[in-house]
Amino acid sequence: MRAIRLHEHGGPEVLREDRVPIPEPGPGEVLVRVHAVGVNPPDWYLRGGLTTVPGEPESTVRLPAIPGTDVSGVVEAVAPDVDDLAVYDLTVYDLTGDDLAVGDEVFGLLRFPGFHGSAYAEYVAAPASDLARKPSGIDHVHAAGAPMAGLTAWQFLIEAGHDHPSPFQAARHRPTALDADSTVLVNGAAGGVGHFAVQLAKWKGAHVTAVASGAHESFLRELGADRFLDYTKSRPEELVHDVDLVLDAVGGPDSRRFLRTLKRGGAQFPVLPGDFDAEETAALGVTVSTAQVRSNGAQLAELGRLLEAGTVRVAVDSTFPLGRARAAHERAARGHLQGKIVLTVDQDPALRRPAVTHPAAR
């Protein structure tokens, strides 16, 4: 099969198309014929030389490596030794509560946190528990743009979904309950995580202020933002006061400037950990909490229902064929994204095999 691999770390130019064997699914895994791949920050972190995810004791990355975690595609086969999970021959139990069968369309965030998703390829072996059925109302391109960004927003805002200790803080991250009386500010609102955060907060009934550059105003208002602030023309932290929650999808060293937009008892969630002063947050009477997104097929199925209903949608900034992964990374480096970058995968005709669906699986 065709796959994009790193033989060395560096800029986008190190992404190389290779021919490699189709992977064999291991225990609890299915083989997915990939139709589209979401491009995410960990992909270019790995490309640039980061080989250890926060919380891991040491790197397990070995070059050459296939980057990528977000996929949408079709189940091609299941591992032969998953009888304990089998409902029918060729059917594996998916932790969303449904039967996942050969021929089903699925999407998922694979093996995260970690750099072993191996999604930039025509086929990928995927843990069944990381997958959910692809919503029938959206295509593979939009489905591939949902897993990491959508689950990040979900686990920050709706439900963490796990008890794993955070590598960024001692306390477990606990989302703030949102309803019609809640006020939320989303910084970096037009990007992958940000545009999901706007929509999920609106789904819960909150009043949402979106912060982005002016080019994204109409887009964010279409997603439901009640107020829009152009950070290139004003300082949002000087215009917003007494909000319950700040979801900072940009994060980093400047994130603390949003602390003073919060009311006492409010919370700030930086997606990328920032530099916060404990004495300052205590004096303001606010909390700061962050999390690390983790693969979760059950949560993805919940998000999928919102995508199916049209309550939440995936914005696609741009698409590139798999063989132009370098161009996709170059687009990411230019920034100012509106939604997600997605790689499209057209299989080599010589590799196409008819999907096998067990007659009792439907």
What does this structure look like?
With 362 residues, the protein is α/β, with parallel strands linked by helices. It is built from 9 helices and 17 strands. Helix 3 (147-157) packs across helix 4 (192-203). The strands form 4 sheets. Strands 3, 4, 7, 8, 9, 16 and 17 form a 7-stranded mixed sheet that branches. Strand 5 and strand 6 form a beta hairpin. Mean pLDDT is 90; it is low at 82-97 and 350-362. The radius of gyration is 20 Å and the shape is globular. It folds into 2 domains: 2-150 and 294-351, Quinone Oxidoreductase, Chain A, domain 1, CATH 3.90.180.10; 174-288, NAD(P)-binding Rossmann-like Domain (Rossmann fold).
Overview in brief:
The protein has 362 residues and is α/β, with parallel strands linked by helices. It has helices at 41-48, 140-144, 147-157, 192-203, 217-222, 236-239, 278-284, 297-309, 325-334; strands at residues 2-6, 15-19, 29-39, 70-78, 91-93, 99-101, 105-109, 123-127, 131-133, 183-187, 207-212, 227-230, 243-248, 262-270, 287-288, 316-321, 340-344. It has nine helices and 17 strands.
Regarding CATH, which class of the largest domain?
Alpha Beta
The biggest beta sheet is recorded as: 7 strands, mixed
Q: Uncertain runs with pLDDT below 50, 5 residues or more?
A: 82-97, 350-362
CATH superfamily of the largest domain: Medium-chain alcohol dehydrogenases, catalytic domain
Per CATH, which architecture of the largest domain? Answer: Alpha-Beta Complex
Number of helices: 9
Number of strands: 17
Ends: how far apart?
30 Å
The pLDDT mean sits at 90
Beta-strand fraction estimate: 25-35%
Radius of gyration: 20 Å
The CATH topology of the largest domain is what?
Quinone Oxidoreductase, Chain A, domain 1
**From N to C, what is the helix and strand string?**
EEEHEEEEEEHHEHEHEHEEHEHEHE
Shape: globular
Number of domains: 2
Structural class: alpha/beta
Instruction: Report helical residue fraction.
Output: 10-25%
